[in-house]
Structures are given as structure tokens and as C-alpha cells.
Automatic annotation (TrEMBL), chain A:
Transmembrane segments: none annotated. It comes from Micromonospora endolithica. It holds the Pfam family ABC_tran. One of its GO terms (molecular function) is ATP hydrolysis activity. This is ABC transporter ATP-binding protein. Residues 6-208 form the ABC transporter domain.
Automatic annotation (TrEMBL), chain B:
InterPro entries: DUF6297 (IPR046264). The keyword Isomerase does not apply. Coiled coil: none annotated. This is Uncharacterized protein. It comes from Micromonospora endolithica. It comes from the Bacteria.
Length: 211, 505
């Protein structure tokens, strides 16, 4: 059996007296997808933060590509995430942000990939805007474009369908399926059953009502 | 049937006056507790006393010298006076100048309260401030141009003219605030006037400055005072129909600055200024191409290209140390360091933002060191060029000993850039530090430490600072020492002060 891309054993996280994650196990094989579901506060984002090394669990272990997520640049070259809402660079347009991410990831910003992403995500008309004037849904599209503009072995997405209108959700699901078809892995959290169904991936329910 | 006894569309009567509403609010606030503690008043008073005691005598001698400026320097004085007036107009335009407290803006502006009463205190504050500034400029002029001993009447007429001139400038700015669309020609004045005034101050043309006969001073001052009085009356009358929209932005800006002062948290002001700079600017994406330069360097170069106008102002500001060459010892060095640091700061917003929240750096997948090496290029270039330019102008026009001043400025640049970068990375003020007890009372060291962040880098600038401080004349050997120290400081910071593994600044 191949080494899982993400593996968690006996994971536990508490904030004060509130136990958010209790004894959670998960495995994500290479090239596969897994969707975390559960009510608000069930610990979906907390688990994603543990996987990306942004939060150290109080109990249990997490490994990503066989090692503890250490937040090094090497780690972040293989993992791309939307767990955090980034601040944007003032004075750069939407398109320049995405091109910068592609360039830093070793890609060629002029090879047409960014154009394709902007076309399918409906960002073409917003290319010259600055991120601060975008609506929350447009900003979510931009963030997804940035994440998908660079190569990554593992995508960790926190509710990628959030704030998107119903027309664009299947498009995003299609882009994520493309990522999987290319050999990448995907760990996400979602509240939208139809979005998860469009991805066709297994789910892991977190929280008190988890079965 | 309505659930309320009063109809929601009922008009109760004429609205109360703003003065009555303010008094109402003041009374309730006073009942809730004093807003200014005695301790705060004491600390403020102590700060003023210490500052005056420290810099008062030397700056006093500079402002009111024993003798007027020599004949050769009088055009410089005239140019500086004109530049000060233009600067005052620029400042007033930047401030608003009419602005309300944020609570008045939110609760009183959108009500039927008569607008004139609401804005009259704001106008009075602006006029008093502008009159004081105008009087101060005029006082500077008299101090440099009038013969000694100066008759009290001459002194009084000039100061009155200056104050009235300040009022006229403020009223001009208020009129421009009222109709921003028509104010564009006014905003061109600084752009057109400051470069030739700066050149006039530096070149010191020969020839006497035409003076104003003493007998003409009274009528001149009276005319300016009368003009100011009439313009004030017209403006007060027109306040009743002053639009609300132009009040929002300056009022919120002032509120943010007061927040920063109240919370002793100035660290978010640079970001605020930067956001204001970019707001409303239409950008056009420029394609990034693969090449030798790392992404962050290209990003900085793009920002530089988009801040061309600011670069022009910075180039102009390189003449400021030369204009103030007579300032007390140490001021020149301070000015060069401050100017270089300002120049370096042109592209530092990205560093500030990445230091505060590295999420975008993680998306880029670059180590802190790689990013900072790249982010150092543009600031080092800017600071070096600015310091070299300032030192060259200083050497060409000031009374400095001969030497390779421009090269010394060039060598100083990287150290000033590292100082600016370290300041940009310094983040929020640490208000969790324990209070420090002094004989004059205890104070929180967080803001002071924040203010001094990166300043220790100047230990790598000793040769240049010593030369600019007038302690010695620079030679090429001295420049080489400065080059070595700057290189050592830069390398030490990049090796020891940056993260070589994680995308963290």
C-alpha cells in the first residue's frame, strides 16, 4: 500500500474547555480526495490547519508526505491551501497576483494557463482590478485561481464553494477533478453536498454527530 | 392599527441646533467620567517641557538669529517662505481641511441639524491653525530679512499679514474641498511651484531682494486682513449648504490617526497611508515574463514604475538637506538618514504585509531569506541613489569640505535600506512589556521600542554619519570603510536575521 499523502492518528485539539477534535484518524492516499463535513464548529478548519502545520495538535500525530508538516518552504512548494485568507499586495492587480504565484512556483506566467483559469473562473473582466475592490465571491475565485495557477501535490481547501454563485460551483469542481486526474491529492472541507457529489469523493464527518 | 402612538412620518418641529446637541452629548460624557486623566496631562506636559528644553535653545537661535541673513542668502529665504506657503496649502488639502469627529460624522451629519452650526467649530479650528502657521512662517521671514533691532510695528504687521495669509490659504482649501472636481488646478500649484522654488533656494542668485517700504507695510497688512475677513464671512455663510460627501474621507482619516495615538499603536498607519495611495488608481496588468529576476524583485520594480510621481518628489526632496545646511549639528545626518529611509520605503508595503500575515508567502512557497534578499534590491537601490543625490547636492551648494560626498552617500544607502526593511518587519507595538519606572513617572516601553526598531543598524553607518555631522572630511579611504561596513551589515542581517527554511519574515 502506498504511503498516504496525509495521515492523522488520534488527533486532539481543544480551545480552552471546548474539545474541537477528539481522537480523529484519517488517511488520504496519493491521487485521492477526501472531504471533511460536519456542523459549524465540528473542527473541519481546525483539522485542515493541523494538516498544513498552522496549528499544532495537543494530542496525536499528523504526517504529510511522510513527515510532520514543518511549515518550511519545501513543504509549501508541495502543498497549496486556502485555509488562510491572505492579505493582498497593494498596487498589484488581480492578474499580477496570480502571475506572481505562478512565477514563484516555477511556472511560466505567459504560457496561457493563467488565461485559461481566468476564462473558466469568470475573472477575465476583473484582471485589471485590485483585490480590495472585489466582492467576497470574486475574491474567493481569485484565491482559487492563485492556488490552481501553481503546481502542487496536495491541495488543502477550506470550503472552496463558499460565497460562490451556483453557476461557478460546478466549474470549480471540474478544476479540482482535473487536479486529481493529474495525480494530485485533495483534502477539503465543505458544507455543500451537491459540490461534494460533483467531486465524487469520500467524506469524513466530524463532530458530535459523526458516525 | 399602528403599534406606536406617534406616526413614523410625523414631523416634530424645527431640528435642534448642533450646539445644543453637542452640549447634550458633552454632559452625558462628563457624567460617564473624565476623558482625559491627570496622568495623561502630566505625561503630555512633561514631554513638551523636555522637548523644549532639549531642542529649544538651538532651534531658537536658528529661528531668531542675532543678525539677519546675509545679502547672498536672501533669495534662499524668500524661496523657502514661498515653499512654506505652498506646503501649507498642500497640507491643508491633504487634511481635508474641514473634518468632523467620527461620532459627529455618524450621528449628526445625516440628521436635519443645520449644517452651518455643525461645521462652524471645524472651520474655526482650521482657521486658527492656519493663522498660527502663517504667522510662524512670517515670523521666520522677519527673523531672516528684517534689520536689527526690529521695530515692534514692523514685526506686528508682518505677523498679522502672515496670519491673514494663512487664513486665506485655509479658505481656499475649504472651497476646493467643497468642489473637488474644480480643485484640480489648485493641486497643480505645488507640482509647478516647488521645483523652481527649490532650485531658487539652492542656486542663491545674485542681486538684492526688493524690500517692502515700512510705510507700505500697514496698508498691505490691512488689505490682506480685510480680504481674509470678507472671505471668512462668505465661507461661513456658504457652510449651510456644504455637501456631506467630502467630509467623510478626511474625518475617518483623522479618526484613524487619533486611534493610533490613543492606543499608542502607530504600526498600522503606514498601511493606512499606502491603502489611501492606491485607492481609486486605475491599474492595467502588465505581463510577468520568466527571466533571471526573482518574482518579488519584479513585483517591486512594477510598484516603482507605478509610483513614478512619488519618485519625482523624492528626487526633489534630495535638495532638502542642502537647503537646511545651516541647521544645528547632527541635523544633516538625521535628514539624510530619514530621506534615504523614506526613499527605501517606496516598495516596502509588501514586506510589511508579508511580515504581518505570511499566507501569501506560503502560497509563493519561498523562504523568508529568499524573499528578503529579493525585497532588499529595490530599497537598497533607492536609498543609495537618494543618499548619493542628497550628498552631492549638499557638497555642491553647502559649505562642506571637499571630498567624494556622493560616493559616501551611495555607500550609506544599503545600511539605511536595511534599517527601513527591519522597521517594515517590526509589526505591532508590544504593549505587553512591563512598565519602566523613571524619576518622572512610569512609562510603557513598547511604543519607544517600536519607534527605535532597526535604528541600531546605523552602527554600520558611523563613517557617513561622522562626515555628515561635520566631524571630519571624507576621503576615498573613508568611503571604502563605509562600503565595507554597509556590506557587513547587510550580510549579517541576511544571514542571521532571516529565516532560511520557512516562508516567514
Amino acid at each position: 500500500m502506498p504511503t498516504p499523502v496525509v495521515s492523522a492518528r488520534g488527533l486532539g485539539v481543544s480551545f480552552g474547555s471546548v474539545a474541537v477534535l477528539v481522537d480523529v484518524d484519517l488517511d488520504l492516499p496519493p491521487g485521492a480526495a477526501l472531504c471533511l463535513t460536519g456542523a459549524n464548529g465540528a473542527g473541519k478548519s481546525t483539522l485542515l490547519r493541523c494538516v498544513t502545520g498552522l496549528l499544532t495538535p495537543q494530542a496525536g500525530t499528523v504526517s504529510v508526505f511522510g513527515a510532520t508538516p514543518d511549515g518550511s518552504a519545501t513543504f509549501w512548494r508541495r502543498v497549496a491551501t486556502t485555509v488562510e485568507q491572505p492579505t493582498w499586495y497593494l498596487g498589484l492587480t488581480v492578474r499580477e497576483h496570480v502571475e506572481l504565484v505562478r512565477l514563484a512556483g516555477g511556472g511560466d506566467p505567459a504560457d496561457g494557463h493563467v488565461d485559461e483559469l481566468f476564462a473558466v473562473l469568470g475573472l477575465a473582466a476583473l484582471a485589471d482590478a485590485t483585490p480590495d475592490v472585489l466582492s467576497s465571491g470574486q475574491r474567493q475565485r481569485m484565491l482559487l485561481a492563485a492556488v490552481l495557477a501553481r503546481p502542487s501535490d496536495l491541495l488543502v481547501l477550506d470550503e472552496p464553494e463558499q460565497r460562490l454563485d451556483t453557476e461557478i460551483r460546478p466549474v470549480v469542481a471540474g478544476l479540482l477533478r482535473d487536479h486529481l486526474a493529474g495525480g494530485g491529492s485533495l483534502l477539503l472541507a465543505s458544507h455543500d453536498p451537491s459540490f461534494v457529489a460533483a467531486l465524487g469523493c469520500p467524506t469524513l464527518r466530524l463532530g458530535a454527530d459523526a458516525s | 392599527m399602528s403599534q406606536l402612538r406617534e406616526s413614523p412620518v410625523a414631523v416634530a418641529g424645527p431640528p435642534p441646533r448642533a450646539r445644543e446637541l453637542r452640549r447634550w452629548v458633552r454632559r452625558r460624557r462628563a457624567a460617564a467620567g473624565a476623558s482625559l486623566s491627570l496622568e495623561t496631562v502630566y505625561v503630555l506636559a512633561l514631554t513638551v517641557v523636555i522637548t523644549v528644553a532639549m531642542v529649544g535653545p538651538s532651534w531658537g537661535r536658528l529661528l531668531w538669529p542675532d543678525r539677519p541673513a546675509p545679502e547672498s542668502a536672501r533669495w534662499t529665504v524668500v524661496a523657502l517662505l514661498a515653499a512654506a506657503a505652498v506646503g501649507l496649502l498642500l497640507l491643508l488639502r491633504r487634511l481635508g481641511p474641514l473634518l468632523l469627529r467620527r461620532d459627529d460624522l455618524a450621528w449628526l451629519l445625516p440628521t436635519p441639524v443645520p449644517r452651518r452650526g455643525l461645521l462652524l467649530p471645524a472651520l474655526a479650528r482650521v482657521l486658527v491653525g492656519a493663522a498660527a502657521a502663517g504667522a510662524l512662517v512670517a515670523l521666520g521671514g522677519v527673523a531672516q530679512l528684517a534689520e536689527r533691532p526690529t521695530p515692534p510695528s514692523t514685526f506686528g504687521w508682518w505677523v498679522a499679514t502672515g496670519a491673514a495669509g494663512g487664513v486665506l490659504l485655509a479658505l481656499l482649501a475649504v472651497a476646493a474641498q467643497r468642489r473637488p472636481g474644480r480643485a484640480r488646478p489648485l493641486d497643480v500649484i505645488p507640482v509647478v511651484a516647488l521645483p523652481p522654488l527649490g532650485a531658487l533656494a539652492l542656486v542663491e542668485p545674485a542681486g538684492a531682494v526688493p524690500g517692502v517700504p515700512v510705510v507700505a507695510l500697514g496698508p498691505l497688512a490691512s488689505a490682506v486682513l480685510a480680504a481674509a475677513a470678507v472671505a471668512t464671512a462668505v465661507t461661513v455663510r456658504a457652510l449651510a449648504s456644504f455637501p456631506g460627501a467630502p467630509l467623510h474621507d478626511p474625518s475617518r482619516l483623522l479618526g484613524s490617526h487619533l486611534d493610533a495615538a490613543y492606543a499608542a499603536e502607530p504600526s498600522f498607519l503606514p498601511d493606512l497611508w499606502e491603502r489611501r495611495y492606491w485607492r481609486g488608481r486605475a491599474l492595467r496588468s502588465r505581463p510577468l515574463r520568466r527571466g533571471r529576476l526573482p518574482g518579488p524583485v519584479r513585483h517591486d520594480l512594477l510598484i516603482l514604475a507605478r509610483k513614478r510621481r512619488r519618485l519625482g518628489w523624492l528626487a526633489l526632496a534630495a535638495a532638502v538637506p542642502a537647503v537646511l545646511v545651516q541647521a544645528p549639528g547632527g541635523t544633516l545626518a538625521l535628514l539624510v538618514v530619514l530621506g534615504g529611509s523614506l526613499a527605501a520605503g517606496t516598495t516596502l508595503d509588501a514586506t510589511r504585509r508579508d511580515a504581518a500575515a505570511p499566507a501569501l508567502l506560503r502560497l509563493l512557497g519561498l523562504t523568508g531569506r529568499r524573499v528578503l534578499v529579493a525585497r532588499t534590491v529595490a530599497p537598497a537601490l533607492l536609498a543609495s541613489v537618494w543618499c548619493a543625490l542628497a550628498a552631492a547636492v549638499l557638497a555642491a551648494t553647502g559649505d562642506l569640505p571637499p571630498g567624494p560626498w556622493w560616493a559616501l552617500g551611495l555607500a550609506l544607502g544599503p545600511t539605511v535600506a536595511v534599517m527601513a526593511l527591519r522597521r517594515a518587519r517590526s509589526g505591532l507595538v508590544d504593549n505587553s512589556l512591563p512598565l519602566v519606572d523613571t524619576p518622572a513617572g512610569s512609562f510603557a516601553p513598547g511604543p519607544l521600542i517600536w519607534l527605535l526598531a532597526g535604528v541600531d543598524q546605523l552602527m554600520f553607518a558611523v563613517p557617513a554619519l561622522a562626515a555628515l555631522g561635520g566631524l571630519l572630511a571624507p576621503t576615498w579611504a573613508w568611503v571604502l570603510v563605509q562600503v565595507g561596513l554597509s556590506a557587513a551589515g547587510l550580510a549579517a542581517w541576511l544571514l542571521l536575521g532571516t529565516d532560511r527554511r520557512r516562508p516567514v519574515l
